[in-house]
Design a protein that fits this description.
199 residues, 7-stranded mixed sheet, binds S-adenosylmethionine, 39% helix, Rossmann fold, single chain, alpha/beta, 7 strands
Length: 199
């Protein structure tokens, strides 16, 4: 598939008033795996500029709740059942707040990406740290039976992370969505049915 074809997603996002072409990756995963449902409580980590949130708010509807967190401000008018926070996911106060005020979540999404340096081992190591943090947040805020979707840059950390997820969740899937650029190292792991604290 050519780069030009991939750019079709960019044009499509503009036409369909989505904030980023990234939305089509989540849409594809949702259409195939139905990880989110009407009424779900969802946490979106690394949510800016907000295209995953635009899509998610329509899937969960007014009986659901969506919280988006990012280092960057998320500047968009979302529905009444959506809240945004401008925070670093490594901030321990943020995690306490999530546990106290927003948990439990049915689904946690992470499309987080580090600032890339172009040095593959450094970028995949930073991406892995973001995934490990998302996994740690999920351990204290995800409901038993809940689902976690994470983006990771493929590198030497990938297999250990996948193994950990297999231990903690009933089912895992490794996904390269069609809208993900073929020359990009990013890949998604969908971990379904969190086994809960006993795991
Ligand atoms: C690819 S973008 C997410 C796009 C988003 N899914 C959308 O559809 O609009 C990755 C985001 O991860 C965020 N990010 C990276 N490190 C973070 C951290 N430590 N805490 C919070 N957000 C972080 C970045 O600021 C960036 O906005």
């Amino acid at each position: 598939m050519s780069y030009q074809y991939q750019d079709h997603y960019f044009e499509r996002a503009k036409k369909e008033h989505f904030l980023a072409r990234a939305v089509y990756k989540l849409q594809e995963i949702q259409n195939k795996h139905r990880l989110m449902r009407k009424g779900d409580r969802v946490l979106d980590l690394g949510a800016a500029p907000g295209s995953w949130m635009q899509f998610t708010q329509t899937v969960i509807g007014p009986s659901g709740h969506l919280l988006g967190v990012d280092l960057q401000p998320i500047e968009h008018n979302f529905a009444a059942w959506v809240v945004t926070l401008e925070r670093d996911i490594f901030d321990p106060d943020l995690v306490r707040m999530l546990e106290r005020d927003y948990a439990p979540f049915n689904v946690i999404l992470s499309d987080m990406a580090p600032k890339t340096s172009g040095i593959k081992v450094a970028d995949s190591a930073r991406s892995a740290l973001l995934v490990e943090r998302a996994m740690a947040i999920a351990e204290t805020t995800l409901a038993p039976g809940g689902h976690l979707l994470v983006k990771i840059f493929q590198g030497s950390e990938f297999h250990e992370i996948l193994l950990q997820l297999k231990r903690l969740y009933g089912k895992t899937r490794v996904i390269k969505p069609d809208a993900s650029r073929k020359n990009s190292k990013e890949i998604y792991i969908l971990a379904l049915n969190h086994r809960g604290p006993a795991a």
